[in-house]
Amino acid sequence: MIRNKLAALILCFVSVTALHAEEGMFPISSIDRLGLSEKGMQLTATQVFNPSETCLVDGICRVNGCTGSFVSKSGLIITNHHCAYRAIQSASTSENDWLKNGFFSKSQEEEIPAPGYVVRITESYRDVSAEVLAAADDSMSAADRSKALAKRRKELEKKAEEENEGMRADIAEMFAGKQYVLFLYTYIRDVRLVFAPPSSVGNFGGAVDNWEWPRHTGDFSFMRAYVAPDGSMADYDKANVPYQPKRHIQVSPAGANEGDFVFLLGYPGRTARHKTASFLEYEQNVRLPYVVDLYQWQIAAMDSMSKNDRGVALKHSSRKQSLANVEKRSRGQLKGLRRANIVAKRRALEAELQNFIESDPTRKQKYGSILQDIDTTYAELAETAKFNLTMSNLVSACRGLGLAYTIYDAAVEREKSDLDREAVYMDRNFERTVDRAVLGWKDWHKETDMKMLAEMKRRLRKVGTANSVDSVKQFLDDDSFGDESFANTKFTDEAYIRTLFSKTSEELKSVDDPFLKAVIGLYPEYAKLRERGKEVDGTLGRLYGELIDVKQEFQKTSFVPDANGTLRMTYGNVKGYSPEDAVYKSPATTLRGVIEKTTGEEPFITPDRIRELYEKGDFGNFLHPKLNQIPVALLYNTDTTGGNSGSPILNNRGELVGVNFDRAFEATINDFAWNESYSRSIGVDIRYVLWITGQVYQSQRLLDEMGIR
């Protein structure tokens, strides 16, 4: 019943006439209107999604910020290597380097904890728009509106969890300032690493090949979800047992070939296709260039610090991979925005909309200034962006300051009533927030952090605004907070750090730690930045809600909501593309390409075992029927974005034929606009997964568990 109510609501927003390629991340409740049988789908819509019976969707889960698929009745999950990367890295040491050598458990007893990982399975959802929006009224300031809506969402989430013990509730904003949906999730906290190929397979090509096609990366890993013996959700315990999903996805060793229909189910992150030209200008001219420049510097700094020390390299590996991924995506987005002239095209559409608004006196009175008001908001953001971005990155680049900020911010927020706190410090979230902070600190490297702090202070000094803010100027002028401060930090062990999270803000002022002292001095400015952020959110939320209304009236159609981390479906075909004149890229790569790319040096190293089997022609039953090679990666024209990492690539019968992990460089623009001619997604072919798992690394037990003979 709950799902049915949402389905009716979502369909109000999804166009049911022509399918628009740029609107390809469909809410799961709308798929019965997509005419998929005409595209090649053999399953009915109710076999994919059924609100009252077990269906394909029940085999899909969210793994932290990625997607995964249950591929056995014993909670075995397949996702990406880069999604499991943090778990592999956390367990690796210089002496036991599982990132480099791979991790292959021989039994469930050998599967190891993945600290910081949770698995979510969508159980139900309902529209709560009226309940959320009732918390705000027109008399409120923008900041107060934002706070009121946030508090109401927290109230509803907390109530839902109290009524559904053991489950997790989250309210997603489907349309800014307009539509809100409460999702209930099974929330599994004991997640373990089962199998991970070495990085030379799982990250073959590294940053060089990232966001590129052709691709030869075996980007997959296996994890497993565990619960208490009575089936309840529990933290890690040796006595826990494998979770039994309602449904698991059948793996098809036949894979997929050029032209085949495929579809994906997953949890795509955030897109911005309903945002205005002024937002795109802000991204193109301000934020994206800033991110590219800063992240390039940080990556180079970490490379130099870890060049001759594998232990330091391991500490940096997860962070560096994340930064490199965002940096290259941001470069691709910049290139795409400029090449496709998207800002100008969006401006032209908005000019037509403005003419429509002004053609009717009533519309003009209600909506006449919306676009201009949005423009003004982004213009004001741009004026202070360099200061705001640098302050934000000060506590993310320098991990000592970042940990101190989390500790002190938690103390300030925990002194408020539970519903008035920032969400991460609420009782329902606080334990996980502390765990994440402690886990991140384990990778701290003093010399790198010193270098990061010095550079961020240098960049902050170049921002004129910084010198007019007393607390910031005092921080920049304080020479005592320098290299020696890092040796005097009290952040020496996990137990001590945890005690700091139990102190009040006044008690923390007495702690003789240089990072805490620096953060406490800067904290009033961070509080102002947060308040300004709420004001902007409140302003834009109201304006974008009204903009959707008038756009629907103008275009006489409906819209698919932007991706927001909730369950979606996208479909297409295995298909190549032509990214430039006289160049065609076919949609499959093979093991031969891996061997041809192999240089013996990072990032193109291939394990000896793979090269030996290749030379012997020992490919088992996993050859591509036309290419006569082991297929490695697939290219297809589905609509994906971040969060679709790990999404199952499913054939027309709903069988798993690959695992999505990336997009082509031209498709980094997907977050803002999608175009079938160049937007392509990339996945690892299931035949490569099975060959690597069963034949190369002799983990036949996993193939047996998946029903592969």
Overview of the molecule:
The protein has 709 residues and is of the alpha+beta class. Among the domains are: 213 residues, no CATH class; 278 residues, no CATH class. The protein is built from 25 helices and 21 strands. Helix 9 packs parallel to helix 13 and helix 9 packs across helix 16. The longest helix is centred in the last third of the chain and has 42 residues. It is globular. About 3% of the residues have low confidence.
Keywords for this entry:
single chain; globular; 21 strands; eight-stranded antiparallel beta sheet; eleven-stranded antiparallel beta sheet; alpha+beta; 25 helices
C-alpha Rg (nearest Å): 25 Å
The general outline is: globular
Average pLDDT figure: 93
Helix/strand-derived category reads alpha+beta
Q: What percentage of amino acids are in beta strands?
A: 15-25%
- In DSSP terms (H or I, runs of 4 or more residues), the helix count works out at 25
Spans where pLDDT lies below 50 across 5 or more residues: 4-23
Largest sheet: 11 strands, antiparallel
- Helix fraction bin: 40-55%
Distance from N terminus to C terminus (CA atoms, Å) equals 40 Å
Number of separate strands = 21
